[in-house]
Amino acid sequence: MRSEFQFINDIKKRFLLDRVGDDCAVVPKNRASDLLITADLLIENVDFRLEWATPEQIGHKALAVSLSDIAAMGGTPTFGLVSIGVPQELWDSGFPDGFYQGWHELAARFDVEMIGGDTSKSPDRVVIDSIVLGDVPVGRAILRSGARPGDAIFVSGSLGGAAGGLTLLENGKSLSDSTGSESYLIERQLRPFPQVELGKRLMKLAIATSMIDLSDGLSSDLAHICEASGVGAAVIEEVLPIDQNLSEHFGGDESFEFALHGGEDFELLFTVPEDRSSELKELPVTRVGTITTYAGKVDLIRGDAKTELEPKGYRHF
Amino acid sequence: MRSEFQFINDIKKRFLLDRVGDDCAVVPKNRASDLLITADLLIENVDFRLEWATPEQIGHKALAVSLSDIAAMGGTPTFGLVSIGVPQELWDSGFPDGFYQGWHELAARFDVEMIGGDTSKSPDRVVIDSIVLGDVPVGRAILRSGARPGDAIFVSGSLGGAAGGLTLLENGKSLSDSTGSESYLIERQLRPFPQVELGKRLMKLAIATSMIDLSDGLSSDLAHICEASGVGAAVIEEVLPIDQNLSEHFGGDESFEFALHGGEDFELLFTVPEDRSSELKELPVTRVGTITTYAGKVDLIRGDAKTELEPKGYRHF
After folding, report:
1. ipTM of this predicted complex?
2. pLDDT per residue over A133-162, tens digit each?
3. Which of A199, A273, B181, B316 is the 20 to 30 Å CA partner of A84?
4. How far is C-alpha B36 from the chain's CA centre?
5. DSSP E strand stretches across chain A
6. How many Cβ atoms from other residues are within 10 Å of residue B295's Cβ?
7. Do residue A119 and residue B317 have CB atoms under 8 angstroms apart?
8. Chain A contact set for B31 (CB, 8 A)
9. d(Cα A197, Cα A212) in Å, to the nearest integer?
10. DSSP labels for B105-118?
């Protein structure tokens, strides 16, 4: 059966959709800026659970995932819309009020204004479509397709924390009853923080040849860059910035799997020319590998051994 | 309990959202144009039924309702995005292929390009968020708020057909087994045609003081114009362009109710200065009344009698 990525490739070909397939669509706006736009659909019990998250946290996350897409193009977010379908009992109990509160608290940090959306009744599940617009200097949106052999591969922050938090929630932990590293990991899952400032910084440096946000997981998202760029990648296992909070709750192998394949860290994964990689010294980023000529192939390097890294990140279909 | 309209007013006040509440949001684009954007959420068994409509028809309608919002601002549609959540069995049976086919067939008529969206698994129902962008000359988007006492009120086309078609479907009729007026009415419901060309014509004439599309129903949508403009309205019952196809299937009272309160005709409802109303002679529009000073009050005039027309169109909450 077709994966969602195959399906998107199919309709791109069938309807000649040149602009589909990156973190955001890019369309002309004015002499200074192109317009970015992204939409993210979140469905109850697929993308979030009401037992795990408050309405405010769900509002925060709905906006955060879209802001992360703007960040992944090096853009500046400007406006947002939310379409929301809500069952009657949640409408009556004030779910939308908390949701919009959480959305706006995050929006205020990035000066994003809500300009529209839609409200609908849903028979039995909350559904949310989060839409965010942004600006990027004309012709300079950082696409997935610009990675070149020899480029250095970087990730921001740490990896696997959100997947660890999800596992803790699945094991019955909750944010309100947690402290320390447990609370931190669950927050990574429920209240992701989009790397908008880092994306803008990279844009200012004009240094990234390709970029994507880590929503599906490192193995899948790096495969997306490789496919779009027609290149391969070699990732050095021992330098992966595995989230240190995982070690208190999970074994080394499990933490490593979270870092490789766990989704929703919403960090940035990007490539820069080798000879400019030293310019990133002051930034909270880690070099994890190098782009290769082996199109579509991602190698994981452990000492002298090399294994192929299959994309095992999250996918709906 | 709060209606959805009250809720939207509440969050507009609470978060100071000036741009929320018209058919589209309007934001600055460049020296020539403002950017329009609209989002419409459609949920299976609330907004459409798989027993009644093919995937192609659902794709057509998802785009049509958003194009209608662009038309209601006098805008020209440019780009579209679709977020779609689909249960596994419908994914496997090719629902998305038919859906995108129907979407693109309508899009081609208006030169609208798909640029993005999202694909997600939905546990048990199809959910669709349709997003369309458009252009409108700077500062000239036709809002709901510009109607002035004395303005003439017009509607395009005919009224009540889509509601009649819905009732036929609810009574077990189907498009494939229908002919003549029955087929016509069901088509009005399943394959609405957005009045984009008329909206652009009105923009060119620079004649409309306010406009909205008839999605909820005449009584509700006229109330929206009156509320936004701080005016009232008087509607002449005998001139209402009730869809003539209704008479073969419904009594006069029922047809009249469809025309007053039935939603989804996706015609345009707009106001023009009295002294310019003759300029619309060549267009497929009907004058149905006059804007009054009685803020928030819509009167229905029958001969010498006057009754208040309560908004009874569609609402989710």
Report:
1. 0.95
2. 999 999 999 999 999 999 999 999 999 999
3. A199
4. 16
5. 25-28, 33-43, 76-86, 113-121, 127-137, 152-156, 210-213, 232-236, 268-272, 285-292, 298-302, 305-308
6. 12
7. yes
8. 30
9. 15
10. HHHHHTT-EEEEEE
